[in-house]
Amino acid sequence: MPKSSQKKTEPCTGNKAPGRPRCPEAHEKILKSAYEMLLEVGFNDLTIEGIAARAGVGKPTIYRRWSNKARLVIDAFLAETSPELSFPDTGKVKEDIRLQMYRLVNLMNSPRGQVIATIIGGGQADSEVIDAFLSNWLFPRREDCSKVIKKGMEREEIRTDVDIESVIDALYSPLFYRLLLKHGLLTEEFVDEIISIVMSGLDKS
Amino acid sequence: MPKSSQKKTEPCTGNKAPGRPRCPEAHEKILKSAYEMLLEVGFNDLTIEGIAARAGVGKPTIYRRWSNKARLVIDAFLAETSPELSFPDTGKVKEDIRLQMYRLVNLMNSPRGQVIATIIGGGQADSEVIDAFLSNWLFPRREDCSKVIKKGMEREEIRTDVDIESVIDALYSPLFYRLLLKHGLLTEEFVDEIISIVMSGLDKS
Amino acid sequence: MPKSSQKKTEPCTGNKAPGRPRCPEAHEKILKSAYEMLLEVGFNDLTIEGIAARAGVGKPTIYRRWSNKARLVIDAFLAETSPELSFPDTGKVKEDIRLQMYRLVNLMNSPRGQVIATIIGGGQADSEVIDAFLSNWLFPRREDCSKVIKKGMEREEIRTDVDIESVIDALYSPLFYRLLLKHGLLTEEFVDEIISIVMSGLDKS
Amino acid sequence: MPKSSQKKTEPCTGNKAPGRPRCPEAHEKILKSAYEMLLEVGFNDLTIEGIAARAGVGKPTIYRRWSNKARLVIDAFLAETSPELSFPDTGKVKEDIRLQMYRLVNLMNSPRGQVIATIIGGGQADSEVIDAFLSNWLFPRREDCSKVIKKGMEREEIRTDVDIESVIDALYSPLFYRLLLKHGLLTEEFVDEIISIVMSGLDKS
DNA sequence: ACCTAAGCGAGACGGTACGTCAGGTCTTTCG
DNA sequence: CGAAAGACCTGACGTACCGTCTCGCTTAGGT
Questions:
Q1: Most A-contacting residue of B135, B165, B177 (CB-CB within 10 A), to test interface
Q2: Dihedral of alpha carbons B120, B122, B126, B129, sign
């Protein structure tokens, strides 16, 4: 977890906090401003100065809580995207995955899809951003997916002699590929096509 | 003003540009400097000022030719990566693709792989960069790949009822995915795994 | 005389001029543009580039004729202000001077007064400008004034034991002073006052 | 002014400005550098970049305090030239003025005279410079002079039916005239001559 | 009737300085 | 005593002109 949580919780375990307490309103205003600007201008054109101005706080107030733009963005954006990408449970693995991929495609086609793209883009210059994206966003979803696939293996719907990580890569990477390179549309038909290609070789049959 | 009008229009109705032509040596020096600095410091820490200084040219000479850093990088980097990614011709489609994917993985693991990553990353804030990456780099290679797959279809090595574009996406996107997200290694084993998953469903059998 | 005249006349004194002669229309267009822009933006904000653009000529065409902005301005402005500042001949020295000073005040209150001010101002950074202003503009008028004063001395209207140069300075410097420092209005009443102060001590009485 | 007002007023219901105070050393270093460079290269060739470099500060630190070169020069030069131009008190008005004019001529012949000239020159393109020169430099000295003349009038040394402003102009403008146009030397003899011309008509006799 | 030298408009050249922006740090005052 | 505010220095931005230098041409006198 980023430093902000630690700093906030540690002194509070003792029942007195020395010095002036951090203004909780500032915290919220900063996150709100950062999130809004992220949607408006993307990760690269996001500036600490701009966030500070919009939130009506000083720059050090931001730097004190988040050591850099990446960590702030993580708190502002990544830490709260969960529920809409959950997996359904239809009883059939391929359908569970298909429906969740539909949801992901839907998200990618929304403004927030562009935010994800700019975060991954910005992360190419800052490994911390990528690391945070992985641990706060991607890995939880991959873990969910992994569970679904394992369930399918247990049900003997799909082969068990494949590397699950690679399967997940094969399924999801085309979506990110098109999100980032924009050489083709992100449609449900494309999802169907990818599932067809990837899963047809995994059928237990 | 009989003279000036004549002078201005007459020669320009002809075929050439008026004024001093742009110095081709400056062009080369700039591209060379940009390419070297790209490898040394990456896309984000690249500065026009630094390139100008290293190339021994003035900043306006750069801005006169490329409107921003992105376009310069495209010319500096993308215009010369071709030959090492050609497809072999072993007679077996799957092997042709496998070997070329090995080459791509090899490239991605070199410093130039990081340059590609930063270009795609930078492109998230500038669609022109992505467009240039597509037309100057990606599409030519996809076209090559497409030909190989079609050849395989003619030879009846693989099924003909699939969308070639989606197949290419399924094959290559995992490599870019790992290049950009760094959640897994880009190894030849990973290539084998992807080919196994994707191609096993495409076998004409 | 500025270099342009020399260049133009010298080869012509020799009976051969090799090469294409300089286009006289360009000369006129440049001077006209320079004069207009001088009125519009003043000496300091005058740019060779702007003059060239307005005149529809190339920069080298200007630099070929005038080595710097100062020399161009001299030709564009100073070489043609003469007639309106001539001295009348009323028979009374004090009146001749008074009327001519009225004319000068009138000129100084026109846009061209500001041009003179910016030329003197710009000349503080370029002694050539001042020198040209002196020889092309100021000295001819001082010479005229000197003749008028000498005539007054001969007529025994004024004392002969004073330094004429100092008298001219005493008479005219207040006008330039107010032109440049703008701490007081340049009116005919002010002229009267100065003449009263300076000439009252010079009366032959 | 969204941020500053809100934030500034809320916690600062107290009396002082929040934030780090402006470094007074930087202030001094900038003024010192500007003054030195003014002596070396004059107003026109003075650059903010050069001042910043010599003072060892960043350009924004200068721009934060002075909106343009003119205002900086005013502070750097004009705000501190007073004492050497004070009037003596010999008991005789003409002598008081003569001695002070000697001092002014002496100043004008020093490097600082050239600085004054370039400031007046530069002021022709920027009325703020002239205004500042008037209020910070010229008017205080004119006021001193005015007092001396009035004293002379009370003592019945000189006539009382003349406009004091015009007298001051008549006395001092020749010095500035020669300072700026350089058509004659600024000597004590010249001062004597001017005083002779101007004051001879003012004698109470 | 050709040379050939100098002119032409156009515009790129290497530079310098501009005034701005954002970065990340430091210092004061206030709660 | 630490949070908040804002000035600090740095460094790069992209622009405007500088004065010079090719370009491909035109012009006209001297061979």
A1: B177
A2: negative
Q: How many Å apart are CA B55 and CA B36, to the nearest integer?
A: 11
Which residues, numbered 125 to 144 in chain A, qualify as contacts with chain B under a Cβ-Cβ cut-off of 8 Å?
125, 127, 130, 133-134, 138-139
Query: CA of B45: how far to CAs of A50, A100, A125, B179, D93, in Å?
Result: 21, 38, 9, 19, 71
Task: Say which residue the tokens 């007298």 belong to.
Answer: D167
For A52, residues 6+ apart whose C-beta sits below 8 A from its C-beta are A30, A58, A59, A61, A62
The two three-digit tokens of residue D95, written as one number: 């002598």
Show which of residues 4-43 on chain B sit within 8 Å of chain C, judged by CB atoms.
Answer: 4, 8
Nearest CA in chain A to B159: A197
Q: Which of A41, A149, A168, A173 to mutate to test the interface with B (most CBs of B within 10 A)?
A: A173
Q: How confident is the model at residue B8 (pLDDT cuts 50, 70, 90)?
A: very low
Q: Does C176 touch chain D (CB under 8 A)?
A: yes
Q: Residue C48, exposed/middle/buried by CB under 10 A (0-12, 13-18, 19+)? A: middle
- Residue B85 is predicted with a pLDDT of 87
Q: Which nucleotide is nearest to D58 (CA to C1')?
A: F9
Q: How confident is the model at residue A205 (pLDDT cuts 50, 70, 90)?
A: low
Instruction: Determine the nucleotide nearest to A11 by Cα–C1' distance.
Output: F2
Q: What span, in angstroms and rounded, lies between the C-alpha atoms of A140 and A129?
A: 16
Give the number of other CB atoms < 10 A from CB of residue D109.
Answer: 14
Question: Across all residues in chain B, what is the average pLDDT?
Answer: 87
Cα–Cα distance, C182 to C171 (Å, whole number): 18
- Summarize pLDDT for D76-91 with one digit per residue, the tens: 887 666 667 889 999 9
**How many C-beta atoms surround the C-beta of residue A27 within 10 A?**
18
A149 CB-near residues (< 8 Å, 6+ apart): A93, A97, A158, A164, A167, A168
What is the greatest pairwise CA distance in chain B? 81
- Work out the pLDDT band at D52, boundaries 50, 70, 90: very high
